[in-house]
Design a protein that fits this description.
This protein folds into 2 domains: 1-36, no CATH class; 48-87. The chain has helices at 6-15, 38-58, 62-86. Helices cover 64% and strands 0% of the residues. The model is unreliable at 16-21 (pLDDT under 50). It is mostly helical.
């Protein structure tokens, strides 16, 4: 587990020049509390992805759900045909 206090993170950032903190115009946002941990942030990201996936699969209109099922069937068929052609 990686744990850094806010002070250490901010100290490291203050020593760098502003252009070092930018990557393709994106800004680096840093945590502001001592309770921050990388493990906790990874858990938060996983939770958000899981909740979003659940929402989209459970709350889709029936016609969209049907289209996604057909798309999955065609993907399986494509894989089967590709496998047969490799033989």
């Amino acid at each position: 587990m990686v744990k850094r206090s806010t002070g250490r993170v901010l100290h490291g950032l203050s020593r760098s020049t502003p252009h070092e903190r930018l990557v393709d115009g994106a800004r680096l946002f840093v945590p502001v509390g001592d309770h921050y941990t990388l493990t906790g942030e990874i858990k938060n990201v996983i939770t958000v992805v899981a909740k979003t996936a659940h929402y989209w699969t459970e709350h889709l209109p029936p016609e969209v759900r049907g289209l996604l099922q057909w798309e999955a069937r065609f993907a399986r068929l494509k894989a089967t045909v590709a496998e047969l052609l490799r033989r």
